[in-house]
Amino acid sequence: MTTSSATSALTKPRASRVAGFLGLLCVATLLFGLSVGSTGFEPLWNLGSDAVAMQIIWELRAPRTLGALLTGGLLGLAGAIAQGLFRNPLADPFLLGSASGASLGVAILLVGFGISPLATQWFVKLGLTGAAFVGAVLAVLLTLSLARGVQHTLRLLLAGVIVGVVLGALTSLLSLTRPDILQAMQAFMLGSTAFVSWSSCAIMAIVCLTCTTAGVALARGLDGLALGEATAKSLGLPLTTLRGALIGILALATGTAVAHTGLIAFVGLAAPHLVRAIVTVRYAWLLPLATLMGALLLSLADLFARGLIAPQELPVGVLTAILGGGYLMWLMNRQSIAHE
Amino acid sequence: MNKTTAASGGDSLALETQRLTVTRGLVTILTDLELKIPTGRWCAIVGPNGAGKSTLLQVLAGILPFQGEVRLFGQPLRQHAAQNRARRIAWLGQSVVQSADDLRAYDVVMLGRLPHQSWLGGQSLADHAAVEHALKLTQAWAWRDRALSTLSGGEKQRVLLARLLAVEADVLLMDEPLANLDPPHQADWLMLVRELVAQGKTVVSVLHEVTLALYADDLLVMSNGKIQYAGKRDEPALHRAIETVFEHRIAIQPLGARWVALPTLS
C-alpha cells in the first residue's frame, strides 16, 4: 500500500512543474511560429535590414502565432470548465450552442451585407467577429431560457443540443438560399488563425486572463460539484449562482475564441484530458494548466497547418479535428483495455 | 410505546419533523412524516427498498425541497443559511460518483471543509488538521496522495467517510455507509460511531444490514413513506415491527447481549 502510494507520488509530477514546462513549450512554439511560413526562415535573418521581412514577421506571423496560443488557451479553459460544470469528461466548450450561434451570426451578416467588394477589409473583419460573438452569446442565452435556468444539468445539455441542431439548420438554410456566401461560410466553419490581427490578440489576451482568474476563484465550487450535486448542496455551495457564473465564463471564453478564429474542434475537449493524464490536481490548478495545454496544442497544430504542405496551408480546424479525433480514439481504446 | 419519538429520555432534539411531505412529480415519497431524533444518540433507519429512507435523509440534509416543517436544533431548517447549516449537519450519500475520480483522496476530504471556508480565503491550519485527523480515523491516511480512481470500492468509501468527518458537524447523516466495507472495517465503523456519539454528536444512518442496525441506540422502522415504528434497540415491539415491514422474511433473535436478524426460509 505504502509503496504504491509512493510510486504514484513519484510518477505524477508536481502541478507547478507541469505549468512551468507547458509555459516554456508555449514560448518555444511562439518563437518557432515566427520562423515558419511560406517564405521560410529567411525573413528572420533579414529582420534588421529588410522592411518586407519585418512586415512579414510583425504583421503576419507574430499576431497569428500569438492568436493561435490565445485561442487555444481560451478553448482549453472553456473545455475544463464545461467538463467540471456538466461533470462529464466528454463535455466540450461548444456544448451550449455557442458554435452554431456564432455560425448563424456570421451567415446572417454575410447575407445582410453581402460580400461586396466595396466593404473595406477591416469593416468586414470587425463585423464578422462581432456577429460571431453576439451569435455565440445569444445562443447560450437561448439555451439557458429553454432549459429554464441553470438548475438542471441534464435539461441544459438537452437544450444545448436542440439549440445547436436548430441554429445549424437555419445556417444551412441561409447558405442554400444564398450560394454566394457558401465559400465565406466554409472558411469560418473550418476555423483558421490566418486572419488574427494585433487588436484581436489584445482582446483575446484580456478575456483569457479575466476568465482564467475568475475560473480559479470559482475552482473550489467545481471541486465540490465533482462529488455530485447532492453532496455539493449538502456542503452549502450556492449551486445556482455558481453555475450561472461558470456559464458566463464559458460563454465569454468560447464566444471570444469562435469570433476570432471560427470553429476549432477538439482542442477544448482534449486539453483537459491531456492535463489529467499527466497530473492529478484540483480545479484551481487544472484550469490554468488546461489553458496552457490548449494554447500549446493549438499553436502546434497551427505550425503543422502552415508547414505541412507549404507554401499552401491547411485550415487549422481540420487538423485539430483529425488529431483530436485520433487522440480520443486512442484514449478510448486504452481505457477499455484497462477496464478489461 | 411512543410512535414518533425515537427515545423518550432525550433532553434536546437534534432533528424534528412535522407533517413532512415530499413529492417528486406525481409520486408522493414521504407522507405527513413526524419524527424526533434526540441529541447525542445514534439512530438507525431500517425498512424495505423504496420506503423513503434515502429521501428522508436528503431532506434532513437540506438537499431536497419539502412541505411541512423540519427543525434542526429547534430552528426551522429553511431559516438556516446554507453555509451555516452545512457546518452543523453533514451528509454522506449512497453512490460513489465517477466525476470525482480525478481528485486526490486528500483533496476530496478537504472538500468537507468547504462550509468552514470563505470564498476567496485559503485553507487554514485547522482545515489541514481536521483533514488529517479524519483520514487517520478511517485509516485512509496512507493513500492520501492517490487519485480516487485508483482506489478500490471499500477504500473509496473510507475516503468519503473521512470527507464527512472532516466537516466536524454536530449531526452526521449517512446513507448506507457500510456498503463496500469488509467485516473488519464494518466493525471499525461501529466503534467510530460509538466514539462520535460519546463526544456528543448525533448520528443518523440508513442501514440495510438489520443485525448491524440493531447496534444503534434507537431505530426508525420505515415503509411506504411513513415511520411505522420508532423505539429503542431492545424493545420486543420494535423487533416485531421490523419483522412485519420485511414481510416476516427475517426473524430477530437474541445472541448473547446482542440481536441478530436471520433470514426465514419458508
Explain the overall architecture.
The complex is a heterodimer of chains A (340) and B (266). Chain A contains 15 helices and no strands. In chain A, 77% of the residues lie in helices and 0% in strands. Chain A has 340 residues and is mainly α. Chain B has helices at residues 53-60, 82-88, 105-110, 125-137, 153-166, 183-198, 210-213, 236-245, and strands at 13-24, 27-38, 42-46, 67-72, 75-76, 89-92, 171-175, 202-206, 218-223, 226-232, 250-255, 258-263. In chain B, the strands form three sheets. A six-stranded mixed sheet of chain B has the order 6-7-8-3-9-10, sandwiched between helices. Chain B has a four-stranded antiparallel sheet with strand order 2-1-4-5, covered by helices on one side. In chain B, a hairpin with a 2-residue loop joins strand 9 and strand 10. In chain B, helix 4 (125-137) crosses helix 5. Chain B starts with 12 loop residues before the first strand and ends with a strand. Mean pLDDT of chain B is 91; it is low at 1-10. Classes of the chains: A mainly alpha (340), B alpha/beta (266).
Question: What is the compact description of this entry?
Answer:
Chain A is mainly α and 340 residues long.
Secondary-structure blueprint of this entry?
The complex is a heterodimer of chains A (340) and B (266).
Chain A: H1 2-11, H2 15-34, H3 42-45, H4 51-85, H5 98-113, H6 121-146, H7 153-177, H8 182-190, H9 198-217, H10 219-226, H11 229-234, H12 239-261, H13 267-278, H14 283-307, H15 316-339
Helix pairs in contact in A: 2-4, 2-14, 4-9, 4-12, 4-13, 4-14, 5-6, 5-7, 5-8, 6-7, 6-12, 9-12, 9-14, 13-14
Chain B: E1 13-24, E2 27-38, E3 42-46, H1 53-60, E4 67-72, E5 75-76, H2 82-88, E6 89-92, H3 105-110, H4 125-137, H5 153-166, E7 171-175, H6 183-198, E8 202-206, H7 210-213, E9 218-223, E10 226-232, H8 236-245, E11 250-255, E12 258-263
Parallel strand pairs in B: 3-8, 3-9, 6-7, 7-8
Antiparallel strand pairs in B: 1-2, 1-4, 4-5, 9-10, 11-12
